[in-house]
């Protein structure tokens, strides 16, 4: 694919600041705090934590597919957790030294929205735990017969 499209065929052209602000107008104050200001929702409070449906979790701001339900697992941490992204090109990783810790922050590759963090304590086959804020995502159910 071209440089502006991921291997899975999705447009990764960055959103302009104007487009980001327009899209952010439809978000709640809490969603804006998390997505745009690297916030974190309290554990065990997110609306997608207990979701067991088949489908794909998309970025709440730009709708880029982020994680397939088939990669979700129960981590016991209180946040939706996944062992691999929908497409690795859809996730940006940044070093995060806030709160006296060294972590790897994950952001949406297209809109730069804060999603959560990734840790090296997940299950096989990747050994990774992508720990996400429900407020950063929207779930789109898929029919199993697709």
Quick synopsis:
The protein is α+β, with helices and mostly antiparallel strands and 146 residues long.
Q: How are the SSEs placed, and which strands pair?
A:
Blueprint: H1 17-24, H2 29-37, E1 55-59, E2 65-68, E3 72-73, E4 81-82, E5 91-96, E6 103-108, E7 114-119, E8 129-132, E9 137-141
Antiparallel strand pairs: 1-2, 1-9, 3-4, 4-8, 5-6, 6-7, 7-8
Instruction: Give a quick account of the main beta sheet: strands, pairing sense, barrel closure.
Output: 6 strands, antiparallel
Helix content: 10-25%
What is the structural class? alpha+beta
Oligomer: single chain
Strand order of the largest sheet: 3-4-8-7-6-5
Q: Give the terminus-to-terminus CA distance.
A: 24 Å
Average pLDDT confidence is: 93
- Uncertain segments of ≥5 residues (pLDDT<50)? none
Count every helix, treating DSSP H or I runs of 4 or more residues as helices. 2
Label the overall shape: globular
What is the β-strand count? 9
Radius of gyration of CA atoms, rounded to a whole number: 15 Å
Strand content: 25-35%
SSE string, helices as H and strands as E: HHEEEEEEEEE
């Amino acid at each position: 694919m071209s440089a502006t499209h991921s291997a899975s065929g999705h447009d990764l052209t960055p959103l302009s600041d104007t487009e980001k602000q327009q899209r952010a107008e439809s978000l709640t104050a809490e969603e804006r705090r998390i997505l745009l200001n690297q916030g974190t929702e309290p554990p065990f409070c997110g609306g997608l934590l207990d979701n067991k449906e088949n489908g794909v979790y998309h970025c709440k701001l730009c709708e880029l597919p982020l994680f397939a339900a088939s990669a979700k697992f129960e981590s016991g941490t209180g946040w939706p957790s996944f062992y691999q992204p929908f497409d690795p090109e859809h996730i940006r990783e940044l070093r995060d030294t806030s709160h006296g810790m060294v972590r790897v922050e994950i952001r949406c590759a297209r809109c730069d929205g804060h999603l959560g963090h990734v840790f090296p304590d997940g299950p096989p086959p990747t050994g990774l735990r992508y720990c996400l804020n429900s407020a950063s995502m929207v779930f789109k159910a898929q029919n199993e017969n697709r």
